[in-house]
Amino acid sequence: MTNSEPSTAPPPRMPADGHMWVMVFGDLVIFGGYFVIFMIYRAMTPDDFLLSQQRLDLTAGVANTVVLLTSSWFIARSVAAARTGEHPRAIRLTCAAGLCGALFILVKAYEWATRIAHGDTNSTLFFSFYYVLTGVHLLHVALGLLIMGIVVRELRNPRRRRMVLVESGAVFWHMVDLLWIVIFALFYLMR
Predict the structure, then answer these.
(1) Domain total of the chain
(2) What is the CB neighbour count within 10 angstroms for residue 152?
(3) pTM of the entire structure?
């Protein structure tokens, strides 16, 4: 092809649906507000927050971080497989990401049950923030699992297979993972 010949390649486009990006941006703004409020309260009573923070199970937090990062890798590979027409592989990878999401929920449920059994309810400001933020995040994980189910349904049906839906599901799931990274850093690591 010479420089004078028109290109037949499709123009570059942003992956996923624009509406998904608006939703993701909105979620990030809302969570960002939660994070700022958490930091303000933490700055007002750092010793109380540190004392409560030390009661969290760092191993469970690390495990959930590894699980979600692994799920992000699976969903990214699923999108790549779907783009090349490897739909059975994309389905398997999406299901693997979903299994990681379900494992995240189980680990978080175990962690919550353990904390509550030890008397760490929302009676302290730290644990109030902890249960609200991890709870809202958990709802996003559940919604992400529903979205992945829809993606699998799309990939199984040769007449559907809308790439924009597969990409939108991945964008949402990556946002869920990103939010967990910030939550993990704020609640488990920051001293």
Answers:
(1) 1
(2) 19
(3) 0.88
